[in-house]
Write a structure and sequence with these properties.
Elements lengths: L23 H41 L4 H34 L14 H6 L7 H8 L1
Helix pairs in contact: 1-2
The structure holds zinc ion.
């Protein structure tokens, strides 16, 4: 039995209603990004659901025999770590969608060159050209 009360509000963030028809690149990747975002949200939701389920089961177990906190803590740490990674991914997708909306998608954030389409295909949420990304990570 799961309670849907703990589901994070799926904020219907700024609807990218007006995608300029003059930008086929943003169009293509905008849809892809939207799709990736939906997928990710579904994954996060499923994960949280699973975590809640497990936490409830653990709590029920603890009422009978309180003893293995350590294991539960480890499990929770893992959940939080995954959460952070996925939150970062979600942020990247949101930023990319924002750039689709304002028309700057596909341009390097730092130097302004067109990010190669191949790179965008590999990583639609990429915001920098390879050179700038490498400089950023260094
Ligand atoms: Zn660049």
């Amino acid at each position: 039995m799961t309670t849907p009360s703990a589901t994070p509000s799926a904020t219907p963030s700024a609807t990218p209603s007006a995608v300029p028809a003059s930008a086929p690149l943003s169009d293509t990747f905008g849809l892809q990004l939207q799709h990736m975002r939906d997928d990710l949200l579904a994954r996060i939701r499923a994960q949280r659901g699973g975590a809640v389920g497990r936490a409830e089961a653990a709590a029920a177990r603890k009422e009978q025999a309180s003893g293995d906190w350590a294991q539960d803590d480890a499990e929770q740490d893992l959940c939080i770590a995954m959460d952070e990674r996925e939150t970062a991914e979600l942020t990247a997708l949101d930023q990319a969608l924002q750039r689709v909306a304002d028309g700057s998608y596909g341009l390097c954030l730092d130097c302004g060159v067109n990010i190669p389409t191949a790179r965008l295909h590999a990583n639609p949420s990429a915001m920098r050209c390879v050179a700038c990304q490498e400089a950023q990570e260094r």
